[in-house]
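I would like you to help me understand the sequence and structure tokens below and explain how sequence relates to structure.
___
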Amino acid sequence: MVNPESEQGIEMTPSGNRPQAPATRGRVRHLRHVLRLAALFFCLAAAPARAASWPDVEYARPDGEPLRLDLETPEGAGPFPTVLFVHGGDFTGGSRKGTSKRVIAALREHGIAWVSLDYRLAPRYRFPAPTDDIRSAVRFLKARAAEYRLDPARIVLMGESAGVLLVSYVGATARGDSRVAAVIAVAGTQDLRRRFYPPGGCFVAGSFVPNPEPGKQQLCLPTGIAAYLNLSGPGPEVERAIRQASPREHISKEMPPYLMLHGTADLNAPFEQSVLMFEAMRAAGARSELIVVERGGHGMGSWDAQPSQAGYLQKMVAWIRTVLAQVQESPGDKRKGPRRSRADREGDPVRHRCRRAAADRVLAGDDLVSQ
């Protein structure tokens, strides 16, 4: 008896199962190819973007002088909270290139971008030129936030040594598009009145010089600050400079949160400077915190060299994360809750599998579909 199906050109296997026709096999191969591409797309989408850096970016050109910054973003899609660092150097020197690698690495580990800028220096440029430069950098980062995967609502100003007087002034006075989410002040001057007229003596160039006439008011005028403010000695311009440029003179309840860090043995910038700012902000109803580095010298480089003092960094990063978690999300940032750290993301099985194996298997032609 003739099998009707054999007359149509389709043979039966000995087991009675019908083999796949050529057209059917082609459709299966096409489906597998589509699924491979879909799997590859999924893995690439799930894998975070690599960490990136943009050195020597021009952010402003006041009076024809190019000002540049360096920018580093961590691994991930962003948008990232950002620390904008302002270096020290006694207002007459210093560079954006001299920043702490340990600090940058700690921030990167917690998903925070790092930016370090150069600004115009004294004596050629005086107040308010450097603070105008910092405002320009904040505006630049906000305007280019999408390009660099930054969150414009989560920019933190951070200054060290001479940079403290600059960032604390900008943080207290900035409005509109130059306003920042928080300020970190590391071992610097906050109260020019107390710095110029200290009760006990002058802190100058790493040394303490006692008042030769105790009980009599003494003008203490550090060289760098004098160059920045264009001061040469006693006179009405000193009081004018205090009113205009001293951060403590501009404290208000509307200021962003401030974190002060200071070593108790600092001979360049008196420890009391951070205490005075901390207490005055609290009295005004503004948010401020103070990290005291016991027996610490001047700045992070000094503290990093002492294991007993290096714990400041962990506390500082914790403060940044806490403060920024309370900042209202920018319109382009729909993430809920704090951003996960790289260590947290490494435990994600989807990311782990895709990054380690799936993409390579697809590109090699291996089947990702069960047979």
Remarks:
- The chain has one domain: 52-330.
